[in-house]
Amino acid sequence: MVLGGAGSAGNAWVIGVVAGLFDAGLDVTDADLIIGTSSGSTTAAQLTSAIRPPELYAATVAAAPPPRRGPGGGRPPHAVGNLLEQTSAIIAAATDPADMRRKLGAAALELDATTDSAAQAQRRALVASRLPSQDWPETLVRIVAVDAHTGEPVVFDRDSGVGLADAVTASTSGPGGPPHTIGDHRYIDGGYRAGENADLATGYERVLVLSPFGGRSRTPEEWGLHLATQIDQLRATGSSVETVFPAGDAVAIFALGANQMDPAQRPPAARAGYDQGRALAAHLTDFWR
């Protein structure tokens, strides 16, 4: 199972989809491998814990949002727009994916120079508080990040020697935030490798992709980072692939430029995902089993 990222709302939507499937009789958390990118890494850690999807869903829709930091909650809307413009400019100036990652890493490292260690420790603690367990699960989970200095992608798992909370913090470090430090290395968001990183499931018979952004990418299609390209590659190697994209009330939440970091978006995103999960269960049951 492949879990793409899309901020706080993306986390809630994926939890909703999986809970809806679960309540309709299909438990996809029994996957042999779960790949998590950006907020999808948080979701992967949550879904492989001892807490069942319906409980995660109930907590998501019932939780009161934290104090708002701007008129739109989470990041202020103008900040979301600025980040989109800044990262889009970096992508447009890059010559290929490796160059893009290096440039994005350099921009994050500039921000890192203005961020004190206490703030970074506080962010790690916040990420850790969202995880039901600090231990890697028995299920094989792969979490994607990018080395901020070299631009090289990194995949963490239970054998990588990196704690689960650090791996998730690294994968969720961006955009607009400083890199996460692990030892002598600094890491930025795994979404800078690709939005879903579905290609990491190569060799698996069945691949289910949950993509809050609907497989969209701001990178040139010829770079091969679009989900459609990765799905073609998976199918060419013998994998059967199914995708779930936002529908109904969730579409507007994940529109380009919308504030997916707004905590107020979590309950409606989760509810929309839940409804989708229940509606898709019959279709996906034959595929998954």
UniProtKB/TrEMBL annotation:
Keywords carried by this UniProt record: Hydrolase, Lipid degradation, Lipid metabolism
Motif range (DGA/G): 189-191
Pfam short name (any one): Patatin
Motif (GXSXG): 36-40
Enzyme active site: S38, D189
InterPro entries: Acyl_Trfase/lysoPLipase, PNPLA_dom
PROSITE patterns (alphabetical): PNPLA (PS51635)
An individual GO BP term: lipid catabolic process
Domain called PNPLA: residue spans: 2-202
GO molecular function: hydrolase activity
Claim: Hydrolase is one of the keywords in the record: yes
Domain of life per record: Bacteria
SUPFAM superfamilies: FabD/lysophospholipase-like
Keyword Lipid metabolism annotated: yes
Protein name (Swiss-Prot/TrEMBL): Patatin-like phospholipase family protein
Provenance organism: Nocardia stercoris
Lineage, uppermost ranks: Bacteria, Bacillati, Actinomycetota, Actinomycetes, Mycobacteriales
